[in-house]
Amino acid sequence: MVDSVGSTQKLHRTVLSWDYWEISDRLDSDGGVFDQLRAVPATFTSVKEYKEVFEPLLLEECCAQILRGMEEGEVLSPHRAVVGAAEQRDDFLFVTLVVEAGCSEMYSNNDLVLISKDDPFGSNPNQQLHLIGFCESHSGAQGLLIKTLVAEDSQAGNVKGSQRVKAMKAGLQSKGSTWYLLKLSNMSTITREWVALQHAHLCPFADILTTGKPRALHESRHLDIPPGMKDTMESLCNSSQMDALKAGLDGTPVVLIQGPPGTGKTRTILNLLSVVMHSAHKGALELQRSGVGAAHGALKEEDHVRLWLKQSHWTQGKQDPREVIRPDADGGALPGRDCFGLLHTAAAVRVGKHSGPKAHVLVCAPSNSALDEIVIRTVKSGLMDRAGNMYAPSIVRVGVNVHHSVKSRSLDAVVESRLGGDKDGSNLSGPERDKMRIAVLDESTIVCSTLSFAGSSMFYRMSRKFDVVIIDEAAQAVEPSLLVPLVMGCKQVYLVGDPVQLPATVISRRALDYSYDQSLFKRLQTAGYPVKILNTQYRMHPKISRFPSKHFYGGQLLDGETVTTDTRQPYHNHPCFGPFAFYDVAGKESSPTGSASIQNKAEAQMVLCIYRELLHRFPALRMNASVGVISPYKSQVKLLRDSFAAALGEEGARLVDINTVDGFQGREKDIILFSCVRSLKKGRRPGSIGFVADERRINVGLTRARCSLIVIGNAKALQVNGNWAGLIYQAMTDKCMYRPRAPYTDWMASVVEGGVGPVEPTETEVAALEEISKKFWAKQQDYQLQEDAEVEMDVLEQVEEEDPGLCDEGAGEVKESTGLAPQKSKDGKKRKPSSAENASSKKAKAK
Ligand SMILES: Nc1ncnc2c1ncn2[C@@H]1O[C@H](COP(=O)(O)OP(=O)(O)OP(=O)(O)O)[C@@H](O)[C@H]1O
């Protein structure tokens, strides 16, 4: 059983022993809380080793999260607080701090706080008395119950630290003494991940998690999709989707489904839900088949299933067969409810030898938005019953920030509707309401929760385990976060995601260095675990999908039959508007004062110019927000937003969605303008173009457009990278590379009118690009960024020799990482590591 209290105590002992100012200094000097971090290997020898690798990485990340608020200027001002009461239990001192009226609401349970004698923003804060505390609960209108660690040995022999703790203990025990209280960060998610990690041995697939090897399977476990459902599904799904849907029917406990952009991941998840709930052993399906008929025949069919279930449960001495006729939790929402209630409850014959008559499925995702997409689509389209007809399943969405369109499916709304007719319902006490919530979770067929929320205490108190867990965006979660739903136990897990897109956001640079951002999906795939790939995309015009298919999916990504016609647009009559075009702008990158990010003014002007010309010629584009502008760099995003607002007014600028590549993951637009920003810079490490070279970021950036992808970048600067060289090669040979000349407005008008054509590449240019691509592909077999950088280095030297005039002066390069928060560098400037930097750091360590 999961002991969340015991393991949380262990986490608190570690985190509350940290000296806030000391860890802050250590992180500044590139040291972290742990000296001995280990890179995440592809496989582990034991669960013990698994925990030993992940624990310090999780704590390192926790440390970075605590410091992030202060670094990003996000922490609130400190509040004055007075000690109301204090009580010591074991090594912990529980202090009630009373804050001014209206301030206590700014703190939540599980917040980490800094308690200090003087203003923490005053001079020499590290010299003050201070201690990290954990907000346990609210106490009255203005009180906060704060847990602190006051064991003097918690400072590991640090005499100064022990003296500080001793003085803090005495101070906090003095009723009426005054302090400053500063909120640092919330610990809910980290705590749930930590608890899950401590219980990794309870994960039913711990052997697969550690060895990365599939299990031997038993023939008797094999289930089949009911024929009616199968026929309908085959008419809606392509063969790779069908393969993915069938992948778990043989009882495979862990199924990996990789869905490149636009390949129908969500559609597959919805169908998977139907399959998981209605597939059955051959015997049951034979019985069902013999009863298939008209409306009354459906009931007859149920009788057969019920008989079969009765018999099988009687022989197995398992579940009470009366369960079979229990209506679905929310009573179903279809006309003819009685009939359907019985039909789809009894019909949900899942299956597996021991799982009872109805599957209990948990659907998770790292983000609320991904989760809501599934809930919205499930509610809108319904699921498929055995006969291939759609029905409204019993589904409940747990957690906060539920999308307004599915609010009626939120746990609290379902509880309220249960209490609807009950006059006494509104008088239910907190614990009674909690019991009701847990009952709803037990009874609902499908429960949807974010990964983090699946670790809330409600889930641990459920009496009915989940049979199947389906995790969407599984490649965008760190491994401990994926463990959260798994340690509660289930029979099967489906991980759906795409490791070739952006991974989880990890803030700690050190944890990134040791591959903490790598998902379980990616690790298992690297270890050779079988993966089902959805291989047909329905989003992008084939001229857009060609490059990502070749470069990121080994040429396996095919185009849906109708995608060419579906994405054809009148603006394609002007090749400068796509489906694919590259504008080679020789602008200069620069860092605005006080920013670690970079921008490129010439590119911003070009983007605006293309957008205006598009809207001028195709006013229909004004009708819907069909254009997106993206850039890898936050500074460029800001510059673009400002330029659009200045040129088009707030109203006009609202029509276009401008965001970072990371912010666009999972989204699509008809037209995407992608500003790459990087330019040639003398003095920069040859061959480096920072994090715009991260292939996962390139992949996401280039796969957001449905109809037209227009890239604006400096070809010479970008082509030092093999992937970019490939894209530029495609633009050159497809005759859709343009070289703008100032003034851009006039030049653009003549391009659209056909006065200026695309670049006619010289043989030397094409040969050079081919050469880079060839070298790059030769290394693709065993692709490592570091090796790639060596290729890039040769090429950049060659480019600089050819055209030194294109290189501008500049010092060392500015880096941005996949993480959101900047880390301070030794010189005190905020900075982020690039993935290339991470890779080289890993390599250095390996050496
Ligand atoms: N087998 C199919 N036949 C025709 N169209 C399909 C098929 N599968 C998916 N689609 C269509 O492809 C589009 C993308 O599907 P879906 O949203 O499920 O993909 P996704 O992989 O979740 O997308 P994303 O990459 O944004 O996560 C939708 O318009 C969907 O209707």
TrEMBL record:
Gene3D superfamilies xref list: P-loop containing nucleotide triphosphate hydrolases
UniProt keywords, alphabetically: ATP-binding, Helicase, Hydrolase, Nucleotide-binding
Biased composition range(s): Acidic residues: 795-806
Region (Disordered): 795-847
Gene Ontology cellular component terms for the protein in this record: chromosome
Residues in DNA2/NAM7 helicase-like C-terminal domain copies: 516-716
A matching Pfam family: AAA_12
Gene Ontology MF term list: ATP binding; helicase activity; hydrolase activity
Superkingdom of source: Eukaryota
Domain spans labelled DNA2/NAM7 helicase helicase: 238-419, 433-509
InterPro entries assigned: DNA2/NAM7-like, DNA2/NAM7-like_C, DNA2/NAM7_AAA_11, P-loop_NTPase, SF1_C_Upf1
Protein's name according to its UniProt entry: AAA+ ATPase domain-containing protein
Lineage: Eukaryota, Viridiplantae, Chlorophyta, core chlorophytes, Chlorophyceae
